[in-house]
Design a protein that fits this description.
heterodimer, A: mainly alpha, MetI-like fold, B: 14 helices, about 0% strand
């Protein structure tokens, strides 16, 4: 319409295209979730219907009861949350401690040790996986959470790397004035660095949580009895059941597994984004 | 001087962990790879037999081929999509926050549940994709049930997850000096030219990082492949075969040997990429 100003018209078109493209992309991203949620409330007839029926005629919870009869999902969610919490406490606190040591002190061999730490980031997990498994089995910890949780208390290299950068930005006067007041180094760590480092610690805590919540391989290797199953193991064994696939109950179970983590993302997105910006490490 | 020792005490937990859970297993792995250990019996030293066996093992080669083919398609494709979406999201837009959360979803949400959702989406009879194709009278492929369509199935999954890489691109694009775009505008450059000749060269370090991580990720791909499988062994990624060797057949020696071979492959690829770096990666 606007003949006098073709460049403006062009600009509108460009902006429109941009929105169109990105909205299409976002739809593609989100449709699997919508499809899962809707399927969880459909009857089997509605699920196996062509052309696709999107909205369930009656929202029914039968799939959830069936899913819960097949797998004790609530217990598995509880187990996962328990394991995640134990791991987070160790990974966050101990990694922060090590990062503090690297960031605020000078000692012999520090740089060499830090290089070693960076090298372990590149190290192939699969190579140490089997000997570590043998170690834990020999020690009698097969089918327990110990092999999954205990290493967390020896810090995680990626988290140390991230927190070191964060702690290095703190001004030196922080410690100096505390030292004058007679504080010990441990007190400086717990009373100053932990509270001031809270945003970074939360970011790390979220990563640690996701790591545990989404990890299948580690849990598959170490856990064997169903009472100790995590949600990943529950879902994996549910999906591998032979016979006709129960899509409705499977979607209900997936929905239950994903809900906590999606709520967490929406609630704490600021921290997720912050971590990516400062470190370039993706989740 | 006191300051010295105190710092060392703080890093001690990590150092102990390094010895217990990395150095010691690594040394053990070196030895186990040369034995016929299968958990129950004794470990006999058999020299290079495990490696020789693997090099003649057709399943080993097929799992490498599956992994490699996937990497060579999924990594560039995913990187390209992540870059494009980041370019668009870097412009001022209304509602950009919502888009970011949506594109970040696959980075947070992974594991068995996502694999199960995609199993359902790819279902040949009633899945979302074939249901959609059905609207146009097209009969969709058998996806995971047809050896020829297993790889495309995994590529769909990879593309869906590509968004998780876009945030490091976003951060890099934000760091490109505004003045460069302004002087390009004065010279009459259009949007494509600005993206191609300013943004793209300056984010090559991120492309490099994303390619390296993508390749390592392909060689570690497990959860999706474990849940989804695929006809004709086309879904048996390297890590899945490694898992089968170690924890289904309990051939610890052979599996450890395979882990070393995978490590050497990943290392070689990373070194090659590092050498190529000076030809295409921008340096400050």
């Amino acid at each position: 319409m606007n003949r006098l100003n073709p460049s403006k018209n062009q600009k509108h078109l460009r902006v429109g295209l941009r929105y169109g493209f990105i909205t299409l992309g976002a739809l593609v991203m989100i449709i699997p979730f919508i499809w899962m949620i809707l399927s969880a409330f459909k009857t089997t007839d509605e699920i196996l219907k062509l052309p696709i029926q999107w909205i369930p005629s009656v929202w029914q919870f039968g799939n959830f009861t069936t899913a819960l009869e097949i797998q004790p999902l609530f217990r598995q969610l509880g187990n996962t949350a328990f394991l995640a919490l134990i791991k987070i406490m160790g990974e966050v606190f101990v990694s922060a401690m090590v990062a503090y040591g690297f960031a605020r002190f000078d000692f012999k061999g520090k740089n060499a040790l830090f290089l070693l730490l960076l090298a372990t980031l590149m190290l192939p997990y699969e190579v140490v996986m089997i000997p570590t498994f043998i170690l834990w089995t020999t020690l009698g910890f097969y089918d327990s959470y110990v092999p999954l949780a205990l290493p967390a208390y020896f810090a995680a290299p990626a988290f140390i790397f991230f927190l070191r950068m964060y702690f290095e930005t703190f001004p030196r006067e922080l410690e100096d004035s505390a030292l004058v007041d007679g504080a010990t180094w441990l007190q400086i760590f717990t009373k100053i660095f932990i509270p001031l480092g809270k945003p970074a610690l939360i970011t790390i805590g979220l990563w640690a949580f996701m790591g545990t919540w989404n990890d299948l391989l580690g849990q598959l290797i170490y856990i064997s009895s169903d009472t100790k199953y995590t949600i990943q193991l529950g879902l994996a064994s549910f999906s591998s059941m032979t016979g006709q696939t129960l899509w409705g109950p499977l979607m209900a179970a997936s929905l239950m597994a994903l809900t906590p983590i999606i709520i967490l993302l929406l609630y704490a997105q600021k921290y997720f984004m912050e971590g990516i910006k400062t470190s370039g490490i993706k989740g | 001087m006191r300051r010295n020792r105190v710092g060392f005490y703080f890093i001690l937990p990590w150092l102990i962990g390094l010895i217990l859970f990395t150095a010691f297993p690594l040394l053990a792995a070196l030895y186990i790879g040369f034995t016929d250990w299968n958990i129950a019996g004794d470990a006999n030293f058999i020299g290079l037999d495990n490696y020789r066996y693997l090099l003649q093992d057709s399943i080993f080669w097929s799992s490498l081929w599956v992994t490699f083919r996937y990497a060579i398609l999924a990594v560039p494709l995913g990187t390209f999509v992540a870059f494009m979406v980041a370019v668009i999201l870097s412009r001022p837009m209304r509602g950009v926050g919502i888009y970011r959360v949506i594109f970040y979803l696959p980075a947070v949400v992974s594991g068995a549940a996502v694999a199960i959702i995609f199993k359902w989406i790819l279902d040949p009879s009633f899945g979302l994709i074939n249901g959609f194709l059905n609207l146009f009278g097209i009969t969709g492929p058998d996806w995971l049930g047809d050896p020829n369509w297993v790889l495309p199935s995994y590529l769909i999954l990879a593309l869906w997850g590509a968004g998780s890489g876009l945030f490091i691109f976003l951060a890099a694009i934000k760091d490109v000096p505004k003045s460069l775009y302004e002087s390009a505008m004065i010279d009459g450059a259009n949007a494509y030219q600005k993206t191609r000749h300013i943004t793209l060269p300056l984010v090559t370090p991120v492309i490099f990082y994303s390619v390296v991580m993508g390749i390592i990720g392909s060689f570690r791909k497990f959860t999706d492949a474990f849940i989804l499988g695929g006809a004709g062994g086309q879904g048996r990624f390297a890590m899945v075969y490694l898992y089968d060797l170690a924890f289904v057949d309990y051939r610890m020696g052979r599996a450890t040997a395979m882990a070393w071979l995978l490590f050497i492959i990943i290392l070689t690829l990373t070194i090659i990429l590092n050498i190529s770096k000076k030809y295409w990666v921008h340096r400050e």
